[in-house]
Each structure stands twice: as C-alpha cells, then as structure tokens.
Amino acid sequence: MPRYILKRILVAIPLLLAMSFLTFVLMQMTPGNFFDSLKLDPQISLETIARYEQLYQLDKPLFQQYLHWVKNLLKFEFGYSFFYNVPVGRLIAARAWNTFILSLASLILTWLVAIPLGIWAAVRRNSFVDRFLSLCSFAGLSLPSFFLAIILLYIASRWNLLPLGGMRSAYYDDLTWAGRITDLLRHLVIPTVVISLSSIAALQRIMRGNMLDVLRQQYILTARAKGLPEHRVIYRHALRNAVNPLITLFGYELSGLLGGAALIEIICNWPGLGSLMLTAVRAKDVYLVMSSMLMGGVLLLLGNLIADILLAWSDPRIRYD
C-alpha cells in the first residue's frame, strides 16, 4: 500500500501541473485582464499598473509567466489577489474553513440519512414505505437546489425561525462559547439542508439498489438458513458488501468541497470558497483562479486515493500491486 500511494502521488504531480497550465491559458485567452478596469480609474496612474505587471512578470510571455507562478508555488507562495489586494494564500485560508464547515455538515447529514433510508427501502421492497421513499427521492432529484433555497429563506423570513443568510449573527462576539456554537448551527440549517437534499435522494436510490443485489446472493440465503437473526444478516453480512460502491462516491464527494456549494453560498450569503472563486473569475483575478482550481484538483485526486484505500480496507479481496 505505501508503494501504491507513492506511485499515485507521483502521477498526480504532472496532472496538477497540466490542469493549472490549462487554466492559466484559458484565463489569458479571454479578452481583457484585471488591469484594464484599473486603467479606467483616473486615481490610479499607468506607472503604478506597470509596476504591478513588472513585479509579477505579467508583461513577460505567457509561458514565462506560468513558470514564475510555479516557481513561487514551490515556496508555497500562491500569488497575489489584485481584486482583494491580499496574498492568495491568506485569502483562501480564511475562506477554506467556512466551506469546510458547510461541506462537512452536508456530508454528515447526507450519509446519516441516505444509508438507513436505502436499507429500509430495500428490506421493505415494493411496500408503501419503499414507494413513498422512491417518490421522495425523485422529487429531491427534480427540485432545483437554488429554488429550494429561496423557498426555505422565504419561510424563515415569514416565521422568523432561522437566520436569512451569512455565517454569524451581528452579536456573535458577545455570545458565550455555547451560544456561538448554537448561532453557527442555526446559520448552517438552510444551506446544509439545501445542499444535502439531492445528494440524499441519489445516495438513497443507489444504496437501495446495492442492497437488493446483495440480498439476492447465495451467502445471504445460507446465512438465513443457518438461523441467524435478520438484523445480523442485514447489517453484518449484506451491508458490508453493499456499501463498497458507495465508498468510491465518497471519494468523489471530497472533490466537491470547493465548488459544489458555490451557488448556495451565493444565495445564502455564506462566505466560502465557491463564492470567492466566482468573484475571482468575473474579476479575472488570475492567481486566485489558478490557486482555487489547483485546490480543487488536489481534493479530487486526494478523494480518489482515499476511496481506493478505504476499499482495500473494507474488502480484503482488493489488493493494489
């Protein structure tokens, strides 16, 4: 396993470089740049703009600009955000924790709800429960997330049940530690539910299908013939094999921590990486866009690697040579 992990890391390096270079080229191919808007500001002199371009070698050829960014990247310097006027690393670090909290809450809610519902529907196949859960799943997959967010925000505004946006209340600093946690959880409810709904619907359907396939296997029939309790057959023998395909999906969900909640972050005014990246693309803040895309690529490759490791750990038949 250590040899396999090292091999995956070595393969990931050229993939990340190719992805970052493609992002850089696409950003440069689009018309205009960030300094074009500054040139329209009479308070900013052309000498100041030229000094910025010379400092970050933006007046050099395309490939030389990219090599300059890679050279700084090896020193863990991600460049400078011209739009926010701060280093990119500091800006991403400030927003990454907010997105992590929202994505982790959504991930936990999705798996804690979808897996039991999928097992319940499979065990009671073709019953009223199974048909009702199937109807709810199709509704959850069909309902647009932004529309659901608007509905929940409208209900919260009419009944004054939950905060209408943001991550903290105005009086957050005056609260006790328990009050701060409660305030954060109240702000998390709407965006977490909106992000999790479609994932719960899809994961519940997948879990149901996997359980039905496993319950038809001969070893399940043998376990029941031996007189094992039904809960032991379901949760010890069937569930372990049915959950294996979902581990791969778990790895892909890690890659969605960066941009999967971007639209909901904007609607709910959540200060995360998704809304930050959208602003960076619109402002053509090239170093912020490249660093955000690089982080997304790292999460994707890391998620796939973690999924492979978890598969080998959960299923002794899987070996990586």
Can you describe what's shown?
By secondary structure, the protein is mostly helical. It has a domain of 159 residues. It is 75% helix and 1% strand. It has a two-stranded antiparallel ribbon with strand order 1-2. Strand 1 and strand 2 form a beta hairpin. Helix 5 runs antiparallel to helix 6 and helix 5 packs across helix 8. The longest helix is centred in the middle third of the chain and has 39 residues. The radius of gyration is 24 Å and the shape is globular. The model has no long low-confidence stretch (mean pLDDT 82).
- The structural class is mainly alpha
Q: Report strand order across the widest sheet.
A: 1-2
Distance between the termini: 8 Å
Sheet with the most strands, sense and barrel status: 2 strands, antiparallel
Written as H for each helix and E for each strand, in order along the chain, the element string is HHHHEEHHHHHHHHHH
Instruction: Output the radius of gyration.
Output: 24 Å
- Sheet-strand content, in percent, reads under 5%
Number of helices: 14
Provide a concise account of the structure shown.
The chain is mainly alpha-helical. 75% of the residues lie in helices and 1% in strands.
